[in-house]
Amino acid sequence: MKYMVSWTFVPGTYQAAADRFLKTGGLPSAPAKMLGRWHGLAGHGYALVQSKDPSAVFAWAAEWSDVLEMQVTPVIEDRDAAKALRTNRRK
């Protein structure tokens, strides 16, 4: 399953978050895998993470919860959405 993660800094934690990111790289632990990450210029960012174990994504978000407000949304790709829509239409 893929998860789209977005975040903003908890007010007053920018430097602590930046220091932690520079020290650790901010990657999730296995079995979660980061597929891409983008940093917005207004203090927010986005990551695409893949994992068969949703608790690994939860644990990663929890590790950063003191400095980042993270929103995690399970997502599917176009082909899977189209398949679901076609199947739903037949019912």
Report on the structure:
- The structure is a single chain.
- The protein has 91 residues and is an alpha+beta fold.
- The chain has a single domain (2-90), classed as 2-Layer Sandwich (Alpha-Beta Plaits).
- It contains three helices and four strands; from the N terminus they run βαββαβα.
- The protein has helices at residues 14-24, 54-63, 78-90; strands at residues 2-9, 33-39, 44-50, 68-75.
- A four-stranded antiparallel sheet has the order 2-3-1-4, with helices on one face.
- A hairpin with a 4-residue loop joins strand 2 (33-39) and strand 3 (44-50).
- The chain is elongated, with a radius of gyration of 16 Å.
- The model has no long low-confidence stretch (mean pLDDT 95).
User: Helical percent range?
Assistant: 25-40%
Query: What's the total number of strands?
Result: 4
Give the C-level CATH assignment: Alpha Beta
How many discrete structural domains? 1
Number of helices: 3
Shape: elongated
Order of helices and strands: EHEEHEH
Multimerization state: single chain
* Residues in β-strands, percent: 25-35%
Q: What would you say the CATH architecture is? A: 2-Layer Sandwich
